[in-house]
Design a protein that fits this description.
two-stranded antiparallel ribbon; 4 strands
């Protein structure tokens, strides 16, 4: 039985391997370069290309290909305008990896909702592992430095990527919430129970990450999932989450003082911002200023660091202090505006931003349309024991995209965890553009699924 399950999941196992590689420790001092997960993601692209050649079928409808490939326009133009050929090639490769190649490969390797759920549970498993490491760091004082103490939960990513664990845990939490809310009927009781338990477990490491951006994005995404799943269910889940929060913070006193101070700082970003917020505002202003000088094409890929000092005010500090979690204290230079939209606007101009954001918006609209169809009663997978209707897949995909779009207002790509963003976009794209049972106008069932399905599986769907 195990061999049969592995054989059936073979096409997406390389994607699972990418997710698993993010559980490995990041070597101190190795930040900024390619990681094992990046290398495996490249193999996923090659694996997908080989399957396409072998199957000899058109992989996507023209409309779906346009949505997936739209970011290439702005990326290519900005690469041509880079300050040096090396910067252009490096930036082109990174952007294509994260926003085109890996998402496209994931989209094409997923054959049905069972594959989608397997990847969603892989997200949850990675989040549980990283979360467990992060909680251990907080309890033992071996985490990254925060307010003079080595207590910040960063998982295996280290102090140079403090958003890494927060991103992984948030993705896992959003997936778990979607899997729990969308698991309907007695056949899905096991999935619902496991997903609810994982959701509650992931709340603690997310809190201990002290990442305000991740908190905000997760709250928005989960609230959106609750509303999309139904208001009655939203009320029940909201009450349960409130009860758990009261027990953890009020009853057990988990990080009460520091968490409260961090939460309070969210409302002080305008009145009394700390230095990190001042730096962020300064870099945002610098990015906008760069765009004004080059409105259509931007300053070129990898150009923000080179133009930063010429556009930033004196309020910008020399860098942020990092340390702890096995690394020595040092200054980390501020080389990006920590806002994906402004980073794209400054380096790729209006052309790049409209192309990239247009692709995301199209995926969001198509994903929500698919969710509406499922809510109205689409058939299930036809697979024994699988939850009916695909509402869980719809909620996971929409939740992940909403999380990412909100988080991009506070963060941008960079660090070892970035490859997980590419996998996330692949999951979203499959649901929005390809899902055979959604009757999507963007892609027909015969376009993708039979191409990658072993004999007999296409009929089962």
């Amino acid at each position: 039985m195990l061999f049969t399950a592995l054989r059936r999941a073979l096409p997406v196992l390389p994607v699972v391997a990418v997710i698993a590689m993010l559980g490995l420790p990041i070597a101190p001092g190795g930040e900024g370069g390619a990681t094992v997960a990046d290398a495996v993601s490249g193999l996923v692209v090659v694996w997908c290309a080989l399957r396409l050649v072998r199957e000899r079928r058109r992989p996507l409808s023209p409309a779906a290909a346009v949505v997936v490939g739209l970011p290439v326009v702005g990326i290519a133009i900005a690469a041509a305008g880079a300050a040096s050929p090396g910067a252009g090639v490096t930036g082109l490769a990174r952007y294509l990896q994260i926003f085109v190649l890996v998402p496209g490969a994931v989209l094409l390797l997923i054959r049905d909702r069972r594959d989608f759920r397997l990847l969603a549970w892989a997200f949850v498993a990675l989040a549980l592992w990283q979360g467990a490491v992060g909680v251990h760091q907080y309890v033992t004082g071996t985490g990254a430095s925060y307010m003079g103490e080595d207590i910040r939960a960063v998982g295996t990513f280290g102090p140079t990527d403090v958003m890494g664990m927060a991103t992984v845990v948030a993705f896992g939490l959003v997936c778990a919430v979607g899997l729990a809310l969308g698991a309907l009927g007695p056949v899905a009781a096991g999935q619902r129970t496991a997903a609810v338990a994982c959701s509650l477990l992931l709340l603690l490491p997310l809190a201990l990450s002290f990442s305000r951006g991740a908190w905000i994005a997760t709250a928005v995404a989960c609230c959106a999932q609750l509303v999309l799943a139904g208001l009655r269910r939203a009320a029940k889940v909201g009450a349960a989450v409130a009860a758990v929060a009261v027990i953890l913070v009020g009853g057990l006193g988990v990080g009460t003082a520091m968490l409260q101070e961090r939460i309070d700082s969210i409302s002080q970003v305008a009145d009394a911002p700390d230095q990190s917020v001042v730096d962020r505002y300064t870099m945002w202003a610098a990015a906008v200023d760069m765009w004004r000088d080059h409105p259509l094409t931007g300053v070129g890929l990898k150009g923000f660091p080179d133009h930063r000092d010429g556009h930033a005010s004196l309020a910008l500090s020399s860098g942020s202090d990092i340390g702890g979690a096995g690394a020595a204290y040092r200054k980390q230079p501020l080389l990006s505006p920590h806002n994906m939209y402004l980073l794209v606007l400054s380096e790729q101009g209006l052309i790049g931003l409209l192309a990239l954001a247009g692709s995301w918006l199209a995926a969001l609209v198509c994903g929500l349309r698919g969710l509406v169809r499922v809510r109205r009663g689409s058939p299930g997978d036809g697979a024994p024991g699988s939850p009916p209707g695909g509402l869980d897949c719809a909620l996971v995909a929409c939740g992940l995209l909403i999380w990412q779009l909100v988080d991009f207002a506070y963060a941008d790509i960079g660090g070892p965890s970035t490859v997980l963003t590419a996998v996330c976009f692949g999951l979203v794209a499959w649901w929005a553009l390809v899902d055979p049972a959604s009757s999507s106008p963007v892609a027909e069932a015969s376009v993708v699924s039979p191409a990658f399905a072993p004999s007999g599986e296409a009929a089962a769907r």
